[in-house]
C-alpha cells in the first residue's frame, strides 16, 4: 500500500504521470472515489502519458469505453447489471490492455486478483490517494 497527499490538480497530474510509468499490459487499474474526486483526470493523464500529450481523452460516461491502442478506459457508472460488462468488452480488455476502470464496484466479481486499486478521497483542498 502507498499513500499520497496531492494538494492541487497539478500535483495530481504529476502523480498520474509517474504512476503511468509503472503500468504495462495487461493490467487493471480500478479508480475508486466519489464524483469530482479526479478519477477521470487521473485516467486522462495516464493515457496522455502513455499515448502522447495531444491524445484527446473524452470521458467515457456515455460510451462506457474508449480505446487507445492497448489502453481501455471504462466508466461503469451507467452499468446496471454486471452481465453488461461482457457486452462492452471488459473481460477482453482486462486480458490484453492496460485497463482503467472508473466506478469499478459493479465489476468486483470480475476483477483479477492483481488489480491495482486506487482510492481517491478529499483531503483539505486536495486529495488523498491510496494505492493497493
Return Rg in Å: 14 Å
Residues in helix, %: 25-40%
Form type = globular
List SSEs in N-to-C order. Answer: EHEHEEHHEEE
User: Beta-sheet strand percentage?
Assistant: 25-35%
Arrangement of strands in the largest sheet: 1-7-6-2-5-4-3
User: Class by helix and strand content?
Assistant: alpha/beta
- Report the sheet with the most strands, covering strand number, pairing sense and barrel closure: 7 strands, mixed
Low-pLDDT residue intervals, each spanning 5 or more residues: none
- What is the β-strand count? 7
Architecture overview:
- The protein is α/β, with parallel strands linked by helices.
- 27% of the residues lie in helices and 29% in strands.
- Strands 1-7-6-2-5-4-3 form a seven-stranded mixed β-sheet, sandwiched between helices.
- A hairpin with a 2-residue loop joins strand 6 (116-123) and strand 7.
- The relative contact order is 0.26.
- The mean pLDDT is 96.
Short description:
The protein has 132 residues and is an alpha/beta fold. It is 27% helix and 29% strand. The chain has helices at residues 9-20, 39-51, 84-87, 90-96; strands spanning 2-6, 27-32, 65-67, 71-75, 98-102, 116-123, 126-131.
Amino acid at each position: 500500500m502507498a499513500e499520497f497527499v496531492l494538494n492541487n490538480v497539478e500535483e495530481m497530474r504529476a502523480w498520474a504521470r509517474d504512476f503511468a510509468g509503472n503500468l504495462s499490459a495487461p493490467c487493471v487499474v480500478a479508480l475508486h472515489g466519489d464524483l469530482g474526486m479526479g478519477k477521470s483526470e487521473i485516467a486522462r493523464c495516464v493515457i496522455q502519458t502513455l499515448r502522447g500529450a495531444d491524445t484527446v481523452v473524452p470521458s467515457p460516461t456515455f460510451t462506457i469505453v474508449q480505446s487507445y491502442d492497448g489502453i481501455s478506459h471504462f466508466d461503469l457508472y451507467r452499468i446496471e447489471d454486471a452481465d453488461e460488462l461482457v457486452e462492452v468488452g471488459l473481460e477482453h480488455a482486462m486480458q490484453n490492455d492496460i485497463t482503467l476502470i472508473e466506478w469499478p464496484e459493479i465489476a468486483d466479481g470480475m476483477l483479477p486478483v492483481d488489480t491495482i486499486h486506487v482510492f481517491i478521497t478529499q483531503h483539505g483542498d486536495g486529495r488523498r490517494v491510496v494505492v493497493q
